[in-house]
Design brief:
The protein is an alpha/beta fold. The protein has 25 helices and 17 strands. It folds into three domains: 249 residues, 3-Layer(aba) Sandwich (Rossmann fold); 154 residues, Rossmann fold; 125 residues, 3-Layer(aba) Sandwich (Rossmann fold), CATH 3.40.50.920. The strands form three sheets. It has a seven-stranded mixed beta sheet, sandwiched between helices. A five-stranded parallel beta sheet has the order 1-2-3-5-4, with helices on both faces. Helix 14 packs parallel to helix 20, helix 16 packs parallel to helix 18 and helix 22 packs across helix 23. The protein is globular and about 80 Å long.
Amino acid sequence: MSSLLTHIDAPADLRRLARPQLPQLAQELRGFLLDSVARTGGHLSSNLGTVELTIALHYVFNTPEDRLVWDVGHQTYPHKILTGRRDRMHSLRQQGGISGFPRRDESEYDTFGTAHSSTSISAALGMAMAARAKGEDRRAVAIIGDGAMTAGMAFEALNNAGVANGRLLAVLNDNDMSISPPVGALNRYLAQLMSGQFYAAAKNVGKQVLKGAPPLFELAKRLEQQAKGMVVPATLFEKFGFNYIGPIDGHDLDSLVPTLENIRHLLDTDSGPQFLHVVTRKGHGYKLAEADPIAYHGPGKFDPAVGLVKPATPPKQTFTQVFGQWLCDMAAADQRLIGITPAMREGSGMVEFERRFPGRYHDVGIAEQHAVTFAAGMACEGLKPVVAIYSTFLQRGYDQLIHDVALQNLPVVFALDRAGLVGADGATHAGNYDIAYIRCIPNMSLACPADEAECRQLLTTAFEQSHPVAVRYPRGAGAGVTPATDLQALPFGKGEIRRQGRSIAILAFGTLLYPAMDAGQALGATVANMRWAKPLDLDLLRQIAGSHDAIVTVEEGCLPGGAGGAVAEALNAEGLVLPVLHLGLPDVFIEHGDPARLLAGVGLDAAGIEASIRQRFGHLIEGAAGLKVVR
């Protein structure tokens, strides 16, 4: 059997295949995908689940003229392979390589950049209405997962789409339920019937005939809804103004293709927005991923014949694991603690907490805005909520952070995972902005632990406060400092001198303390572990400013509005005048790649910090290397 995939360089090549050839293509595509991700690492389970759906969409719709908008975008590897990037998959998520998410500057087939969830229907509706305004003959398709449907933004878009009358298809990729064979066959027939011309015409004729007899018309509407409702959850989406179709088996090309062809005809006849419910299975076609889709959600490199293997030597404890252990320990010590996550139980390290304290664990779904205000409501009643949330995801709840938490000065703790650069996930997931967007909010405080031990201590400090506090920490492991087992706090708003030097003082915020220490050793500089971006330790700052000729601030966060800016503002307010060099992340979006190489690329490793200081303050550097390190 000759290969089909090697001859698919664009969807136009796919559309030249005969329909009976598509199952073979799906098999080849799934095999290529598995082998590719095993070599590079990346999202696997979600992509194995969208192979047939991707093929069917590109087969039926005239892409890229017809717009496909993928929600979240971590399930678009089959899409990338079929749209001319097969030969670049070896560079996936690597520096200089292709992204793990859709990007408009990467391909004309990536019509909308995504990586956060629940944006697809809004964007696709905008494209559909733009086509109508410009008089262009095109369709827009949003592919959204069942998890992403938990976000309010998806329902805001549905509400608008129902009255906007654009040529829009929303495909719900539901991978959390299964279809038994008997029901599957019936659903295939009903889906094709409901999407076919006969059904649409009959329904429209019936409406016209029965409108003259309102009681009969209402009875017919109820019968239709109940008949559908026996096998499908149609009513909800039809109330939004969509024609609901499905559910259908998302791995059955003999169901997908004709149903999508019928839907395309409905779009072409201006029959209003369409909603297709497709059921898929994460990890489909690879038994190990089917059995454990969570483990294979985003694996590193592995042998597909063997599967995931635990490393011979245990890896260093991650900050996420430190948080998870602290959360359990603090929950055992204080009955008021409530753990909240917006659909990131595993990513935020809350698996053990849910097991031990199920009544105090709340996964609110992909609904960051709700998570923040939900926590605020609990805090109003005397509880102590801890919101475990990625730094980049808290941006989505920013209004609630200001108005519902900070304005009311409620004691909510925000555990901000993935602060700073995140590596392979790139700019969409990087937590570069939390210092800037938090420190400008009244009543808020922000801690920046330097290592794992401080992370646990500062979480305790945050929990003890009677106002909102965020603790930011990076992805992965840090310096490897083993946390204590107690719940000892550190002084609120206080830093420390870690190395005493002369002339130049390096003020480090967070985990960059350790490369700053190496640079300080080479330069004979003082190094301070500031610990808090807000409030600043003004006593320590005055002491340093009064005994040094220059100050250098170092942070793994954006320079505009960052901790360095806070230091400059404080010096100005105190009337202290001395030169300050700010080192941090530049005012650009930093692409995906190895985190250590990315930090080195922006001068935030030890060598880069030392070089920047020598360039700016070379005349102040004294031969003071080797002065005492204070611990």
